[in-house]
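Tokens in:
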């Protein structure tokens, strides 16, 4: 493999949907919620690149610390697999993680400088950065203490969406936070499916994830709640939070939701190799759901106009 291909595999690009959809969603919500706002395409692109760079850095650092803690080892799933296969060295992955984080920090610093009253952005960036670095790093280790769900929901849900919104509008609002809930639930569903798959392996590594604490049966129920909760909260947002009825087109992805929940329901009946892809399948659901949500809001903006 070429060097570029190795790094592409290392950052786990199948999961980039969770760092691409939120900044796009936040920017579109900014247009809808602020009539006359001057949309800054350059800052929009920078916000997206910053989110993706931070995500890549978090993935690389997670690979490093998971490998060092023996969470990732031969016969396990969930990482890029490059450290377990000894294709790349831990030192190289660790350095790559910090370089990606540094790139995200530079982009964030620029946006803070260019955004009036950018102090609010500092807090959002700091929250996301802390969750990304300490997801598996000491002394916090969110993932190993069953707090990974909180970290990914906040980081790849309300924080990213609100941050992208703020970059365009220079003000905070509860609307992007609320509209981020459905996609945030699906981000957590990706993580939860990963942890559900890895219950046995994670127990050997002596870490605590939510499925280990609550057991497989309840963990399956939680997965159903996260997936179907994305659709339920969409209905609630249409009814009570001025979300456009066009957003109901997210239900076009419902067959995919049924497919992944059926995989989880029949986990014990599926070959290990097939169920190993549950996180990637859930990520695909997040992507389709997120694209449909963004499309619905774009349709609202161009055919109905911003909120009055």
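Residues out:
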């Amino acid at each position: 493999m070429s060097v570029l291909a190795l790094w592409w595999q290392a950052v786990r690009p199948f999961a980039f949907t969770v760092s691409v959809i939120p900044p796009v969603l936040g920017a579109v919500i900014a247009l809808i919620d602020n009539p006359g706002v001057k949309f800054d395409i350059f800052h929009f692109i920078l916000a997206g690149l910053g989110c993706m760079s931070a995500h890549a850095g978090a993935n690389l650092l997670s690979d490093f610390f998971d490998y060092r803690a023996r969470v990732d080892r031969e016969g396990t799933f969930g990482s890029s697999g490059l450290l377990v296969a000894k294709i790349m060295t831990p030192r190289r992955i660790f350095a790559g993680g910090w370089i990606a984080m540094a790139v995200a920090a530079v982009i964030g610093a620029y946006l803070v400088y260019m955004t009036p009253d950018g102090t609010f952005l500092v807090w959002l960036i700091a929250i996301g950065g802390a969750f990304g670095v300490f997801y598996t790093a000491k002394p916090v280790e969110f993932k190993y203490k069953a707090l990974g769900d909180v970290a990914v929901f906040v980081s790849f849900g309300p924080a990213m969406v609100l941050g992208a919104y703020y970059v365009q509008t220079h003000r905070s609002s509860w609307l992007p936070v609320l509209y981020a809930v459905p996609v945030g639930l699906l981000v957590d569903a990706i993580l939860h499916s990963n942890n559900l798959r890895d219950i046995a392996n994670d127990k050997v590594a002596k870490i605590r994830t939510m499925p280990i604490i609550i057991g497989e049966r309840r963990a399956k129920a939680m997965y159903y709640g996260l997936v179907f909760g994305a659709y339920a909260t969409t209905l609630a947002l249409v009814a009570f939070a001025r979300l456009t009825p066009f957003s109901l087109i997210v239900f076009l992805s419902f067959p995919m939701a049924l497919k992944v929940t059926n995989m989880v329901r029949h986990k014990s009946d599926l070959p290990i190799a097939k169920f190993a892809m549950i996180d990637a399948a859930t990520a695909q659901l997040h992507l389709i759901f997120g694209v449909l949500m963004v499309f619905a809001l774009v349709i609202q903006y161009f055919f109905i106009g911003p909120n009055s």
